[in-house]
């Protein structure tokens, strides 16, 4: 198993800010759809955040419900913009505070309302 | 066209790509320009997304080697090496020493032909057709080596989980060394033109400047990062046979398109030298270790592709299928730095600057 630091939506940005201030580079995020951990429970998204400094890796980990919302790291790491938009398209996650939001159209067409890596369907809100 | 206020030049949005003469692959940039000066750029992707990561749920872990090779043709060998590293770590497989050297040989040949391809395209981007043809002529020698040793010019498919599937005979090793000596002479003959020619310098020096600080903040990797003076290269991690070879990252200090071109030019020569070293220091032995059981657990691995660091995360659940294969390719990391290079440049310089990160969009979208 990877050595990871557990974070929540409340602690994610503070933890990322510490890494940014320490000179850590954002490598990428990894999302994995996981089956329910207990019988009768809900499946969830296992979200990993990978950082590098001097060729050493550090990983943050959080669990997110399907169709869940995650605090965006893009105000700290601008490099997170494309990563978070990609995860929105492929896994249906929403990132709160994303500085450049493609609203699910980075890879997908505007009329697609299904996250390809997950078997659930997202519902788009009409603007206006 | 919109007029923001009375004192400002009107702003126009100009689409650059997805089809453009200098772009081998479909990248779309929306350029906001004031007169001829770019003030902002917004990327649009999604033209070649193939969902290759998702195939891990329907292809077993051995078949996935062939899938990851097709993430990108031009760095296919190094994709396969990185994926195999993950499986080998997860399944505690000790790769034979000879296989580690063979992986370096084919990997560095890939880097050399990728850089030569790019150097040609880069020359073409500012209209230097004869330089384009000269680089591609040299590249043919490397492609011939790939074909003679692996049966294919681009996707060599030599890697398997546990090692490699092909060997090099002593005669092939001598022939490769000889071919690389000739190629090196031909590349050195182009050095003066590539690095000192008036046209090249006029079109590249001071264009698309990226400081070391901004490059690190925006997550730049590979020659894009090293062209800003940062000596970071995943080969310093010491994977495969690199601890047995003389390797130091190539850097250039200025952070402009010229610096990035210079790094790739010098790295091409360095790759030829690494192949010759690997051939001369390669031990005898087995080509691959036996693979038993199915992968379980989660690992990450990084290697250096021609465009920079590639990152793999692989998760196994004890079956022959992998619940997750995550691939972060170097161009994906270099798009945000590209957006930082463009503001302030002239519209005519956009093709040169865009090409200076060596964008590979099929890699980026997978």
Sequence-ordered SSE layout with sheet pairings:
The complex is a heterodimer of chains A (128) and B (366).
Chain A: E1 4-6, H1 9-21, E2 25-34, E3 44-53, E4 56-65, E5 69-71, H2 80-91, E6 94-96
Parallel strand pairs in A: 1-4, 5-6
Antiparallel strand pairs in A: 2-3, 3-4
Chain B: E1 11-16, E2 28-34, E3 37-44, H1 64-69, H2 76-90, H3 97-125, H4 129-150, E4 159-160, E5 163-164, H5 170-196, H6 198-204, H7 212-217, H8 223-226, H9 257-281, E6 296-305, E7 308-317, E8 324-328, H10 330-341, H11 350-356, H12 361-365
Antiparallel strand pairs in B: 1-2, 2-3, 4-5, 6-7, 7-8
Helix pairs in contact in B: 2-3, 3-4, 3-9, 3-11, 4-5, 5-9
Structure, described:
The complex is a heterodimer of chains A (128) and B (366). Chain A is 20% helix and 30% strand. With 128 residues, chain A is of the alpha/beta class. Chain A has one domain (4-96): Beta Polymerase, domain 2 (2-Layer Sandwich). In chain A, strands 1-4-3-2 form a 4-stranded mixed beta sheet, covered by helices on one side. Chain A has a two-stranded parallel ribbon with strand order 5-6. The model of chain A has no long low-confidence stretch (mean pLDDT 84). The radius of gyration of chain B is 21 Å and the shape is globular. In chain B, helix 3 runs antiparallel to helix 4, helix 3 (97-125) runs antiparallel to helix 9 and helix 4 runs antiparallel to helix 5 (170-196). In chain B, a hairpin with a 2-residue loop joins strand 6 (296-305) and strand 7. Chain B is built from 12 helices and 8 strands. Chain B has one domain: Cytochrome-c3 Hydrogenase, chain B. With 366 residues, chain B is of the alpha+beta class. Helix content of chain B is 45%, strand content 14%. The longest helix of chain B is centred in the N-terminal third of the chain and has 29 residues, at 97-125. The two termini of chain B are 35 Å apart. The mean pLDDT of chain B is 89. The interface between A and B is medium-sized, with 29 and 35 residues.
């Amino acid at each position: 198993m990877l050595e990871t630091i557990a974070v929540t939506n409340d602690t994610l940005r503070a933890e990322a800010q510490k890494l940014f201030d320490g000179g850590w580079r954002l490598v990428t995020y990894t999302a994995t759809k996981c089956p329910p951990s207990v019988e009768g429970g809900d499946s969830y998204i296992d979200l990993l955040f990978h950082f590098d400094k001097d060729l050493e890796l550090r990983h943050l980990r959080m669990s997110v419900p399907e169709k869940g919302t995650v605090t965006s790291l893009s105000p700290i790491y601008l490099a997170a913009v494309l990563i978070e938009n990609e995860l929105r398209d492929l896994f249906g996650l929403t990132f709160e505070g994303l500085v450049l939001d493609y609203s699910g159209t980075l890879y997908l067409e505007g009329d697609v309302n299904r996250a390809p890596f997950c078997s659930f369907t997202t519902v788009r809100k009409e603007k206006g | 066209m919109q007029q923001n206020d009375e004192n400002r030049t009107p702003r126009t949005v100009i689409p650059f790509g997805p089809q453009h003469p200098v772009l081998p692959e479909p990248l779309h940039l929306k350029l906001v320009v004031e007169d001829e000066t770019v003030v902002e750029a917004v990327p649009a992707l999604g033209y070649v997304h193939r969902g290759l990561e998702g195939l891990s749920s329907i292809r077993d872990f051995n078949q996935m080697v062939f899938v990851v090779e097709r993430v990108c043709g031009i760095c296919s060998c190094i994709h396969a090496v990185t994926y195999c590293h993950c499986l080998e770590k997860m399944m505690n497989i000790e790769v034979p020493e000879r296989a580690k050297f063979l992986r370096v040989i084919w990997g560095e040949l890939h880097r050399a032909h990728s850089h030569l391809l790019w150097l040609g395209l880069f020359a073409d981007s500012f209209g230097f057709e004869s330089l384009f043809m000269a680089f591609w002529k040299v590249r043919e020698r490397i492609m011939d080596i790939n074909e003679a040793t692996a049966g294919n010019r681009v996707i060599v498919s030599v890697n398997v989980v546990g090692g490699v599937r092909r060997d090099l005979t002593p005669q092939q090793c001598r022939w490769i060394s000889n071919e690389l000596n000739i190629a090196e002479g031909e590349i050195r003959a182009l050095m003066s033109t590539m690095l000192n020619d008036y046209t090249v310098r006029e079109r590249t020096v001071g264009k698309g400047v990226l400081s070391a600080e901004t490059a690190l903040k925006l997550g730049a990797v590979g020659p894009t990062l090293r062209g800003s003076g940062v000596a970071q290269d995943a080969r310093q991690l010491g994977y495969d046979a690199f601890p047995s070879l003389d390797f130091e990252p190539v850097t250039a200090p200025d952070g402009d398109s010229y610096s990035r071109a210079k790094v790739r030019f010098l790295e091409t020569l360095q790759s030829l030298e690494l192949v010759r070293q690997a051939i001369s220091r390669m031990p005898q032995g087995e080509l691959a270790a036996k693979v038993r059981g199915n992968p379980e657990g989660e690992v990450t691995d990084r290697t250096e592709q021609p465009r920079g660091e590639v990152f793999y995360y692989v998760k196994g659940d004890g079956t022959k299928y992998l619940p997750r294969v995550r691939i972060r390719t170097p161009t994906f990391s270099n798009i945000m730095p590209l957006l930082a290079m463009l503001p302030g440049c002239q519209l005519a310089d956009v093709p040169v600057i865009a090409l200076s990160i060596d964008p590979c969009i099929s890699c980026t979208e997978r």
